[in-house]
Amino acid sequence: MPRYVSSEEAIRLLATARRVLVIGCSGGGKTTFSAKIAACLDLEFQSLDRDVRWLPGWVERDRAEQRAIIEQLARRERWVMDGSGASSFDIRLPQTDLVFWIRVPRRIALLGLFKRVFRYYGSVRPEMAEGCPEPLPDRDFLSYIWNFEKRYAPLFVKQIDEHGPTVPVAVLRSHRDMDAILNLLKNSD
C-alpha cells in the first residue's frame, strides 16, 4: 500500500521537496497543477509528453530513448515532473520526494479533455511537443480516460509499492483540492 499523506502533510513536505512527481488520468489537470507547483517553488517543470514521449507529427519516440531521457531528467537536482507512464516509475519514483496523484472522477477528466480540445484544437498547447497540434480525441483515448480507475489505478498502486514504497503520496480528488494546495503554498511564503 502506498504511503498516503494528507494535503496538510504534503504542504509541509513541499517545503523541503526537491523532486515532485504528479501523476493521474489525462484531462484531470495534472499538467496545469504541475506547472503551477513548479512556478511557486522555482523548480524545473518537466512534462513527459513535451520533453520525452512525442516528436513532431505525433511520432512516438523509441521506448529505449524515452527511458534514457527520463533517466537524465530524473537525475536533475530540482524538478516537478508531470506524467503518468507507469512503465517508467522504476526510474522516477526512487528519485522522488513527493507524489501528487490526481484522481478526479472520470466525468471531470472528460470535461477537462473537452475544454482542452476546445481551447487548443489544431494548435500546439504549451505543454506539448512542437509539431503536435491538439487533435480530436479518438475512441481509444476516451476509453483510456473512462476506464482509468479500473484498469490503470491498480497498476499505479503496484508500481508505487514496488519502486517507491516510502515515497509520500498525496491524493487530490478535485480541482478544489489542487487549488487548496496551491493557495496554501502561495500563502506559506
Automatic annotation (TrEMBL):
<keyword id="KW-0614">Plasmid</keyword>
<dbReference type="InterPro" id="IPR027417">
    <property type="entry name" value="P-loop_NTPase"/>
</dbReference>
<dbReference type="InterPro" id="IPR052922">
    <property type="entry name" value="Cytidylate_Kinase-2"/>
</dbReference>
<protein>
    <submittedName>
        <fullName>AAA family ATPase</fullName>
    </submittedName>
</protein>
